Amino acid sequence: MAELIVGIDLGTTNSEIAIVENGQARVLTEDGDPILPSVVGLSEDGRLLVGRAARNQWVLAPDRTVKSIKRKMGQDVKVQLGADQFTPQEISAMILRTLKARAERELGTPVVKAVITVPAYFNDSQRQATREAGALAGLEVVRILNEPTAAALTYNPAAGGEVPADGAAPAAPPAEHILVYDLGGGTFDVSIVHTEGGVVEVLASHGDTQLGGDDFDELLLDAVADEFQEMYEVDLRENRVARARLLRAVEEAKKRLSDHAFTRIEEEFIAEKDGVPLHLSTEVDRADYEALIRPLIDRTMECVQHALDDAKLTAAQIDQVVLVGGSTRTPLIGRLLEERLGQPAHREVNPDLCVALGAAIQGAIIAGQNVGSVLVDITPHSLGIKCLEYSDELAFRPNEYKFAPIIRRNTPLPASRSEVFCTVMDNQPTVEIDVYQGEGDDVRRNHRVGRFMIEGLARVAAGNQLVVQLDLTLDGILKVSAREKSTGLVKQITIENALARYAVAERAGAQARLNRMWADLESLLPGGAGPDGGPGGDPADPGAVGLPAQGGGLISAVPPSVPTLDPGPREGQRESVQARALLEKADRVRAKATAEDQDELDRLAGRVRDALTDRRWGDLQAACNELSDVLFYLEDA
Ligand code: AMP
């Protein structure tokens, strides 16, 4: 059996230990938890606490607790812990010992050798201090590995020069440039790693040692505390316990916002005023939260550019983008990186565990073990719904076939994600939720996996918010729910085989259908040769042109939080959408009307079409009102 060399990610906020077993890397857990908070403390009765217990007491007993010791590695300083003083190496050794013990308990064998990771920017004395910490913990540190190199190895074990598991001669992996974006709790790094012929090298590294998810928490805490202060004239930041509770609550809320479009923060009895208890209850919107943290994320994007410049590479020369660190679960980061680098980032491997897994892979390679790629269950396709899209080019007629992904491709399973969408018509009573899988921006290129209607919505102006949530299990069972935010009205369906790939032939068919539809659509646009906007086919067919016939002339919703979509209606948008729906309804009613009524309908529909074509919004409204009155009468007749 090959020698055991464990991999350790000794992080500023959290640490992990991993091994390679039967060619597969895995992180070792304790009570199911793979993460050990990098916090060391002494309990009230003088017992050593490492990990979660120490972290839990930090706010209330900072004099007996040490966190973020990694920031002091390599410095000639001591930290106070209770009555004694310790070097940073000694504190780090306590964390390493705890991890070593965790591994020995789970594996039932002594653990002696380890690969330990450090940031690429660590200098010699910081690296030396890390080695010393390992030695103090009873570990032989066989290699100090750069964190971005470890992350790159997790996604490309072959880059480390391993022998394939089938024992065949190793195929030379292609040379690659991998950009590793690492945003943790307190630090940010971006590195460009070059891999070639088993040599992995960091070409450039930039970062900010004082930027991370903790700063996002502080910004959100300030926003919530300001709101509370405005309401009750009590500053939650002034009371230590209230502040600590709020900090925890906002961090949890921040994490929920990574998966859901909004969340509530509820803390009962958080303060008191004139003897009256005060409760905190507020809602946070992802869009507002993203606006709050945007300046910080922009700073990280500047570092990305610096790293590219230093490596003398353009964005197009980056072969893969890898996300590391818990804060990279923030969707805004993935979106901005994709915009800048022109490719989606890898997010298959848990970003908290990626570095530890890579360290274990490096350990296994040193020990001469075979290593396969890290296996994770992911969704191979994006899943989302059909909605309307407005844009400058489409001001006259919205794109009715916009695909709004909710769970993106390569998301680890199980996954639960939600987005908010809005109705676009006043008093819109129903909305159709049309669920697709695929990567096309247009749903007609994708595969429909199910659909349903939510009916009985509140009679309110356009902009009624619906929360669409997708829950996908490991077995490919997809639960889709739509909830009217203001009333809680909910409708949901379960789709059994949402992960089934659709056949190549079907995809080719979809493409052909799409090409046909585009040709049809062109003829429908103003100046086109075809009829003016009538329904062009079977509404059940995703290839149908025209507004789908949904119950009472309904249309899909618009997600305000999808960046490619416009935040609000433009001039004439709503009118033209309403007019299209009315025209469609007129066509349906016309089929059953008398000849005389048909003439009247044709006259009024003609007026609506003319006003639409000429973009006379005032006239359009008047014509629509008339048509609507006649339709009302004819429908009832
Ligand atoms: P790390 O230092 O890599 O362990 O990252 C820890 C940071 O990631 C903390 O600031 C966490 O609040 C943050 N984090 C963890 N999970 C999430 C999430 N789902 N969304 C946003 N931030 C997260």
Describe this entry's structure for a reader:
The protein is α+β, with helices and mostly antiparallel strands and 637 residues long. It is 35% helix and 26% strand. Strands 1, 2, 3, 4, 10 and 11 form a 6-stranded mixed beta sheet that branches. Strands 14-13-12-17 form a 4-stranded mixed beta sheet, with helices on both faces. α7 runs parallel beside α8 (331-341) and α11 packs parallel to α13. The structure holds adenosine monophosphate. Adenosine monophosphate binds next to α5 and α6.
Q: Cα distance, first to last residue? A: 85 Å
Regions with pLDDT < 50 over 5+ consecutive residues?
162-167, 501-505, 521-570
* Major sheet attributes: 6 strands, mixed
CATH architecture of the domain at 6-167 and 349-366: 2-Layer Sandwich
Brief summary of the model shown:
The protein has 637 residues and is α+β, with helices and mostly antiparallel strands.
Main attributes of the structure:
6-stranded mixed β-sheet; 25 strands; Substrate Binding Domain Of Dnak, Chain:A, Domain 2; Nucleotidyltransferase, domain 5; 637 residues; binds adenosine monophosphate; Substrate Binding Domain Of DNAk, Chain A, domain 1; alpha+beta
